[in-house]
Amino acid sequence: MNTILNYFKGVREELSKIVWPSKQVTINHTLVVIGVSLAVAVFLGVIDLGLSKVVEQVVK
After folding, report:
1. What does the alpha-carbon distance between residue 21 and residue 32 come to, in Å, rounded to a whole number?
2. For the segment 7-40, what is each residue's pLDDT rounded down to a tens digit?
3. Residues with Cβ < 8 Å from 1, sequence gap 6 or more?
4. Model pTM score
5. Rounded to 5 degrees, what are φ and ψ at 22?
6. Is residue 34 situated within a structural domain?
7. Cα dist. 54→7, 16, 40, 42 in Å?
8. Which residues of 18-32 are buried (b: 16+ CB within 10 A; e: fewer)?
9. Containing domain of residue 25, as a range?
10. Inside any domain, residue 9
11. How many domains would you assign to the chain?
């Protein structure tokens, strides 16, 4: 039982050492992730559309 308590005391101690990012940094990083995700989605959509047209012409 003592080992379990020591474990959770250690966890609490380590959690208190964490330096969390500010709200603004979190928002900025979130916007970057959303922007990159949208850019990749558009890029892959264009590639997919182009390849679909090529296959359509070959099968025709």
Report:
1. 15
2. 999 999 999 999 999 999 999 999 999 999 999 9
3. none
4. 0.68
5. -70, 165
6. yes
7. 60, 57, 21, 18
8. eeeeeeeeeeeeeee
9. 19-60
10. no
11. 1
